[in-house]
Design a protein that fits this description.
The chain has 301 residues and is an alpha/beta fold. It has 11 helices and 8 strands. The protein folds into 2 domains: 56 residues, no CATH class; 233 residues, Alpha/Beta hydrolase fold, catalytic domain (Rossmann fold).
């Protein structure tokens, strides 16, 4: 099911908000697949078929490509790097603007399921906009993104979170000092990647020049006093789980005197930027992405 088909489906028969909430619980390990599917089955009384609901809620990456890897304005490849405090040898997807010797670097951080096609496309979008983009795959040390989110989610949940964090710190240092980098460093992440972006802003505030977490929870409480920005935080109004963490985090940012901006997108669900599922909100996604690119141009270019 393509994103346009999903949008058409939503316009004809809106999927109940409970279904989105259940998917969020399932995607973040709060309920198992069986519970998720049982709850969806309960919507059959409202006239929704299981095939329609599952097809709309679960990602279909075949229809989520905005920038082809064959685009002549970019060059995409994979590179390995070392993470001595993490998992040792790691790998990521690097995308370089064509015919540009040096560009500001942006680390692209995936959700809690590995380097899926949507995140790779985000990296290509950044390169097409003139940035050196690097998207590590946290799952590489145990085989890499497996091709489906369910297995990827289980794989990532089995890994040492502290070591994953070190892998992304090592990746940030690598791309900041890459031969094609100007030395300016930004980071953008989604969901778990939003958390990692907040963690980087707290862990390496003097090295990270701009951070954009999408619907991410804040770093560990004992680190938050380090955040000074610039940081642009993007939230979805219906994302109660993540939004519950924002008041305390904002209070800390104010106490820090941090340079921050925050936007909450009305009626949007967690994951609204991901164009492979029905959570995708085209208008909000476009606005949030425009703000992201403008923010990176302001602080990195």
């Amino acid at each position: 099911m393509s994103s346009s088909q999903i949008s058409e489906l939503n316009n004809q028969r809106p999927i109940p908000q409970e279904a989105f909430d259940w998917y969020d619980e399932y995607a973040h390990g709060l309920i198992d697949r069986r519970t998720f599917m049982t709850r969806l089955a309960g919507l059959a009384a409202l006239g929704f078929s299981m095939n329609m609901l599952v097809g709309a809620l679960m990602p279909n990456y075949a229809f989520a490509e905005q920038v082809s890897f064959n685009d002549p304005e970019i060059k995409a490849n994979y590179i390995k790097y070392q993470s001595p405090k993490g998992h040792g040898e790691c790998q990521g997807y690097i995308v370089v603007p064509a015919n540009v010797e040096k560009a500001p670097a942006v680390l692209v951080i995936h959700e809690n399921r590995g380097l899926n096609p949507y995140i790779k496309d985000v990296a290509r979008r950044l390169a097409k906009a003139g940035f050196l983009a690097f998207a590590p795959d946290a799952l590489y040390p145990i085989g890499g993104y497996p091709g489906n989110d369910d297995e990827g989610r289980a794989m990532q949940a089995s890994m040492d979170k502290a070591k994953i964090e070190e892998d992304f710190i090592a990746a940030a240092e690598l791309i900041k000092n890459h031969d094609h980098s100007t030395g300016k460093l930004g980071a953008v992440g989604f969901c778990f990647g939003g958390y990692i972006t907040n963690m980087l802003a707290a862990t390496m505030p003097d090295q990270l020049d701009a951070a954009v977490p999408f619907y991410g929870t804040p770093s560990a409480e004992d680190l938050r006093h380090n955040v000074k920005g610039p940081i642009l935080l993007q939230f979805a109004e219906l994302d109660e789980r993540v939004n519950a963490t924002w008041p305390d985090y904002e209070a800390q940012l104010k106490e820090n005197g941090a340079d921050y901006q925050a936007y909450i997108y009305k009626d949007a669900n967690h994951g609204f930027h991901n164009d492979s599922t029905s959570r995708y909100d085209p208008e909000d996604a476009e606005l949030a992405w425009t703000r992201t690119i403008d923010f990176f141009y302001k602080h990195l270019k």
